[in-house]
Amino acid sequence: MRVRTALVGATAVAVAVTLAGPAAAAPARGGHTPARQAMEAAVHDGVPGVTATAEDRHGTWSATTGVGDLRTGAPRSTADRYRVGSITKTFISTVLLQLEAEGRLSLDDTVDTWLPGLVRGNGNDGTRITVRQLLNHTSGIFNYTADEDFIGTHFLKEGFLRHRYDTVTPRQIVAVAMSHRPDFAPGTSWNYSNTNYVVAGMVIEKVTGHSYASQIRERIIKPLHLHATSLPGTGVKVPGPHSRAYSKLAETTTGPTYDVTALNPSMASSAGEMISDSADLNRFYTALLRGRLLPREQLGEMRSTVGIDGVPDVRYGLGLLEQKLSCGIRVWGHDGGIHGSSSVAVTTADGRHSLAFNFNGDWTGNAEAVVEAEFCGPRPAAPSRS
To answer: Residue 278 catalytic?
Structure first.
């Protein structure tokens, strides 16, 4: 759910290095050793533990490093389920594009067409914002997770420990955003706003008469047999096998570490409440990019991107990010952060090489290095100087 301006951003937590998990044959660019090393480097930088799974033409490779429980020292597992944060957005966008393909809405419908009066006040105007602009973050609607009171209540130590089990409704979330002026006029710029996807989830519910969670389950989770993927709603536990999740609950990378595994994810809503594992995320993005979830026209719309100022190698589509890596390979996917959990899931355009991984901490570690290592291999050594 965290604000991102790049496909893979900084994240993570503290201690140990124990690499485990089955390994398949190596991909063409030198095996998975560089990815293992990047995972170990993240743990060295303070991430408690990392779990990752990659799929390529040679098969499946899974590995872990570090610990899943700082108290017991238990390692992470390749079967760990974790909160995926903003990766939820690709699922939301997929459902809306399916509804467009069925003729039940248009991406050029305004927010007011479906939710009259919701986006109003302080210069906000839902009659001027389209569904497409919600999905590609060009609506201009203020990001509610940037509101200082919301941050204090739900992200920083005192507020989080007091309110971690509180339920927050989508309308309450939108009201926070409406207390601010828009960042810009609709369609004139780009800014990542979690509010966009809270509104998008509400559009799904208005169009279908069913919750966005039920639509994701029926349209994506069940058909793809994503057995580790769930939308907990207001449930505070992570179901099934999982590690602990850790945070500093502060705007610094130092200080005490808190176990934040249990929380009410309604504060993230349709912008980031989902739980999954690495294998499911790879299966989802592979199916998506191979056209199993969307007709050609809608997949093309999803992959129609806009630029992000200051980040020349990253572009944003409809709930889908495109990044050009240092070796020239382009990957598609999303990253996501929520308390104590930082995740990335990416795949090549043909769906033949995918990677998903998770840091069980939210304040350190180089996630981009893991992606670069998996898809580009080791960086060439710097030339020696004589």
So the answer is: no
